[in-house]
């Protein structure tokens, strides 16, 4: 019998594209035989806007790149500027930065995991991580006044010291969080439906992952032990004791496992940083008008989604001549066109969800 | 039933006391609509995450009966524009709005949907949802807290429930 | 941040004066549009196997395409820059070396208007159909919708 393939347009408005991603699938029955990913539906032209902002004014825009982990985006930009201007920041600020970055990593992974499993049909699995995330957002809201777009870091330190409410809340979180991890493992790990839908689905080899520039949990799930916090330690990350979890075959299940393990490692870092938190100022001496010397700097950090890089070109004026971000999600999803082929539609939804991408970051 | 006023008619209040309810069909429909708004699950950017939080355990929008987020515009009543509308997305937003059956309402959630927000200077951003679709409720914030979205939904309920009041406020009659 | 291997020396040994060394920064070299592919292929074989980023900058007189090279195993880092003129902004595509170059180069093409020779699918990626101009060029004037 003669059959023909047909085209299915997934997105830009589709509940499982996590925003406004569009994938045009060529299907033979239910099997994908061709795919083309279209991005840019959230392209806000941030890089052009930043050419018209002063250096400190850039910070709020970084929050809106990966809006699930605003603090981590603040961090890469302020560290780039500190590298450019040779600013040493106070110890206390370094420790608080690490704590907040790791807290936000947990919060981001909570959304990543929760939404992932919800897309596979398990509604209750999204409620528990979101409850934990709310606790973190409450702490952050007390610090910065905002739940998602913090604008808390400054070139040379932090906007202000931590709030008096922060410590009791963190104490409570440290006590309660291990219980959640335990419960969640019991809820998901051996769930037969979850395993059936994710094991051996969307497998990526280490070679392919490296070639496509995958980073973060998506790369580590393929068995590549690469974490900027270990290979190029920035800030004070070399003082902490933590592992870099890796997966085995790089399928959807491994991506879940790696994220869950990473959450535990982040939790370990938070505890260490909290124990060693020194006293002192949180802001270095920085000129009122920030005018870095002529030149360019590239710096990258490990974000929840992968390696976030920041490239700043200064022309000696108070406004940057060029700010560019290497957005991990953008590189991560460029592999979609290749790995979708041969999978059923339902598996494609699982792969999309397991990648945990943020469109704000993909499109800038 | 004794008729005891001059004209021989009972007022509505008197009827209600006796357990008889009178209303117009319009009012009844509006009352029903306002209590069961079905929002359209349509996220654009950061605000969409707060919209999801609103449906989660902590803020729990189902307390108000608005938790039925539909994935298809044809089943929805309210379009919550949660995030930045870009030029590339503009035709899709327009089209999705027209796919929603009448009566339909639009909530512009967050500064980007109201006016373009921090991205208004960009070449790629639509300066506000009201450039494309008629907006009923504006919720400021970047992003607005989930409580603000709930408040917005309740304001929309008021609006649907009392068209006369809305008209009065709008035109001053 | 000193590299373990002196890539600058290695490159001058291999390419002679066709690769310009930045004396101030030990992790920066300049290639040119003709030999950038060979230089990057050589560096990839020497262990810098992670193409982190391709970015570009408009310096008004010339463009610069900036390749950020890292390694998946070592902390080594090298920046390879290619200067291009405004009249002829063309450089060879790296899609034969790294698959990630596909999208990164499309982004640079879209926003900065630099053409990549031998790219399999060089079309706009972020901006919409019918968009004119390349926004990150300094002579592009943003049309603001501010009311």
Q: Can you describe this structure?
A:
The complex is a heterotrimer of chains A (364), B (173) and C (147). In chain A, 47% of the residues lie in helices and 12% in strands. Chain A has 364 residues and is an alpha+beta fold. Chain B has a single domain, classed as Rossmann fold (3-Layer(aba) Sandwich), CATH 3.40.50.12280. In chain C, a hairpin with a 6-residue loop joins strand 1 and strand 2. The longest helix of chain C is centred in the last third of the chain and has 12 residues. The radius of gyration of chain C is 16 Å and the shape is elongated. The model of chain C has no long low-confidence stretch (mean pLDDT 88). The chains are: A alpha+beta (364), B alpha/beta (173), C alpha/beta (147). Chains in contact: A-B, A-C, B-C. Chains B and C meet through loops of B and loops of C.
According to CATH, the fold-level topology of the domain at 7-90 in chain C is: Beta Polymerase, domain 2
Largest sheet of chain B: 4 strands, parallel
Q: Given the helix and strand composition of chain B, which structural class is it?
A: alpha/beta
Give the strand order of the largest sheet of chain C, numbering strands 1, 2, ... along the chain: 1-2-5-4-3
Mean pLDDT of chain B: 85
For the record, the CATH architecture of chain B stands as: 3-Layer(aba) Sandwich
Uncertain stretches of chain C: none
Helix content of chain B: 25-40%
| Count of strand segments of chain B | 4
Give the tags.
heterotrimer, B: 173 residues, alpha/beta, Rossmann fold, four-stranded parallel sheet, 7 helices, 4 strands, 39% helix, C: 147 residues, Beta Polymerase, domain 2, two-stranded parallel sheet, 7 strands, 21% helix, 27% strand, elongated
Secondary structure: elements and pairs:
The complex is a heterotrimer of chains A (364), B (173) and C (147).
Chain A: E1 6-10, E2 22-28, E3 31-38, H1 46-50, H2 58-63, H3 70-85, H4 91-119, H5 124-144, E4 153-154, E5 157-158, H6 166-188, H7 192-198, H8 206-211, H9 217-220, H10 228-231, H11 252-276, E6 295-302, E7 307-314, E8 322-326, H12 328-333, H13 336-339, H14 345-355, H15 359-363
Antiparallel strand pairs in A: 1-2, 2-3, 4-5, 6-7, 7-8
Helix pairs in contact in A: 3-4, 4-5, 4-11, 4-14, 5-6, 11-14
Chain B: H1 12-17, H2 25-35, E1 39-40, H3 46-55, E2 78-82, H4 90-99, E3 105-109, H5 111-115, E4 137-139, H6 146-161, H7 163-171
Parallel strand pairs in B: 1-2, 2-3, 3-4
Helix pairs in contact in B: 2-6, 3-6
Chain C: H1 7-15, E1 20-21, E2 28-31, H2 36-45, E3 50-58, E4 62-70, E5 77-85, E6 90-92, H3 101-112, E7 115-117
Parallel strand pairs in C: 2-5, 6-7
Antiparallel strand pairs in C: 1-2, 3-4, 4-5
């Amino acid at each position: 019998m003669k059959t023909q393939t047909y085209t299915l347009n997934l997105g830009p408005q589709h509940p499982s594209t996590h925003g406004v991603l569009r994938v045009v699938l060529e299907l033979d029955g239910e099997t994908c035989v061709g795919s083309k990913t279209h991005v840019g539906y959230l392209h806000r032209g941030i890089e052009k806007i930043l050419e018209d902002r002063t250096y400190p004014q850039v910070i709020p825009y970084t929050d809106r790149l990966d809006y699930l982990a605003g603090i981590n985006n603040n961090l890469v930009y302020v560290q780039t500027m500190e590298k450019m201007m040779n600013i040493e920041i106070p110890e206390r600020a370094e420790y608080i930065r690490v704590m907040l970055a790791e807290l936000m990593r947990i919060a981001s992974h909570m959304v990543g995991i929760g939404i992932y499993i919800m897309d596979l049909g398990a509604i209750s699995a999204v409620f528990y991580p979101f409850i934990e995330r709310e606790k973190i957002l409450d702490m952050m809201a007390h610090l910065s006044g905002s739940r998602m777009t913090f604008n808390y870091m400054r070139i040379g330190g932090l906007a202000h010291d931590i709030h008096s409410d922060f410590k009791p809340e963190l104490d409570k979180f440290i006590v309660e969080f291990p219980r959640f991890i335990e419960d969640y493992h019991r809820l998901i790990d051996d769930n037969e439906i979850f395993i059936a839908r994710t094991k051996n689905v969307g497998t990526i080899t280490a070679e392919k992952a490296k070639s496509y520039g995958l980073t973060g949990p998506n790369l580590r799930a393929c068995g590549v032990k690469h974490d900027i916090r270990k290979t190029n330690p920035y800030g004070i990350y070399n003082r902490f004791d933590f592992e870099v979890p890796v997966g085995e075959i790089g399928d959807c299940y491994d991506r879940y496992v790696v994220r869950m393990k990473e959450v535990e490692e982040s939790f370990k870092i938070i505890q260490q940083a909290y124990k060693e938190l020194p006293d002192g100022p949180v802001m270095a001496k920085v000129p009122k008008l920030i005018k870095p010397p002529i030149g360019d700097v590239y710096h990258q950090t490990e974000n929840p989604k992968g390696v976030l890089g920041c490239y700043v070109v200064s022309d000696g004026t108070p406004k940057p001549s060029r700010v560019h971000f290497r957005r991990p999600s953008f590189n991560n999803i460029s592999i979609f066109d290749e790995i979708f082929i041969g999978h059923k539609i339902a598996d494609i939804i699982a792969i999309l969800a397991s990648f945990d991408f943020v469109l704000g970051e993909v499109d800038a | 039933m004794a008729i005891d006023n001059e004209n021989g008619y009972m007022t509505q209040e008197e009827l209600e006391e006796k357990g008889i309810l009178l209303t117009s069909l319009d009012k009844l429909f509006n009352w029903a609509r306002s209590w069961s708004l079905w929002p359209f699950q349509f996220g654009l950017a950061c605000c969409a995450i707060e919209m999801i939080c609103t449906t989660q355990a902590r803020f729990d929008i189902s307390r108000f009966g608005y938790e039925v987020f539909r994935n298809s515009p044809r089943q929805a009543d309210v379009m919550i524009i949660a995030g930045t509308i870009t030029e590339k997305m503009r035709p899709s937003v327009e089209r999705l709005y027209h796919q929603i059956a009448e009566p339909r309402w639009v909530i512009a959630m967050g500064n980007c949907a109201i006016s373009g927000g921090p991205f208004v200077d960009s070449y790629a951003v639509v300066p506000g949802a009201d450039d494309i679709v008629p907006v009923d409720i504006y919720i400021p914030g970047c992003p607005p807290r989930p409580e603000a979205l709930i408040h917005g939904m309740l304001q929309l309920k008021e609006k649907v429930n009392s068209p006369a009041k809305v008209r009065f406020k709008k035109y001053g009659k | 941040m000193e590299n373990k291997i002196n890539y600058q020396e290695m490159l001058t040994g291999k390419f002679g004066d066709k690769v310009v060394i930045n004396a101030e920064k030990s992790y920066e070299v300049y290639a040119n549009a003709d030999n950038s592919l060979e230089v990057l292929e050589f560096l990839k074989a020497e262990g810098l196997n992670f193409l982190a980023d391709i970015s570009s900058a408009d310096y008004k007189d010339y463009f610069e395409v900036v390749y950020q090279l890292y390694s998946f195993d070592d902390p080594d880092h090298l920046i390879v820059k290619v200067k291009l003129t405004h009249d002829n902004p063309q450089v060879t595509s790296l899609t034969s070396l790294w698959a990630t170059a596909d999208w990164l180069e499309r982004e640079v093409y879209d926003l900065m208007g630099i053409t990549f020779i031998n790219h399999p699918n060089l079309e706009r990626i972020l901006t919409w159909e019918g968009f004119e101009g390349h926004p990150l060029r300094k002579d592009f004037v943003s049309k603001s919708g501010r009311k």
